[in-house]
Amino acid sequence: MATATVISQRIGGGSKETVVDIAMDSSYPTGGEVFTAAQVSMSKIHYGIASPKAGVDTSATLASASILPTTAGFNVKTWLADPAEMTNTGSLATVTLRCTLYGT
User: Fold this and answer.
1) Which residues of 33-61 are buried (b: 16+ CB within 10 A; e: fewer)?
2) How far apart are CA 54 and CA 41, in angstroms?
3) Lowest mean pLDDT: which of 15-24, 41-50, 79-88?
4) In degrees rounded to 5, what are phi and psi of residue 91?
5) pTM, whole model, 2 decimals?
6) Burial zone of 93 (CB within 10 Å; 0-12 exposed, 13-18 middle, 19+ buried)
7) CA-to-CA dists, residue 88 to 49, 85, 98, angstroms
8) C-alpha closest to that of 82 among 65, 56, 55, 63
């Protein structure tokens, strides 16, 4: 299971901006890694932006990543260069994503 580490959080005007590093793992699940809003010190995710963190190994042919808000939190979905979702149980163990999440 991937892990999330909160890097920073700003609160203003009733909303939050939270920057999170997601350390991917060696067994990617179909549909993406699942996180609750509470895991990143938020109550609801409205939208987010994800990209590979500078200086990490992206040789896993990772082309992009996306944040998909859910009722309980968010999924981090990764895409290959061909373009297709990363295969079920594919390894992204060397990849860390920097995500900026917006919500409350």
Assistant:
1) bbbebeebebeebeebebebbeebeeebe
2) 24
3) 79-88
4) -95, 125
5) 0.83
6) middle
7) 22, 9, 22
8) 63
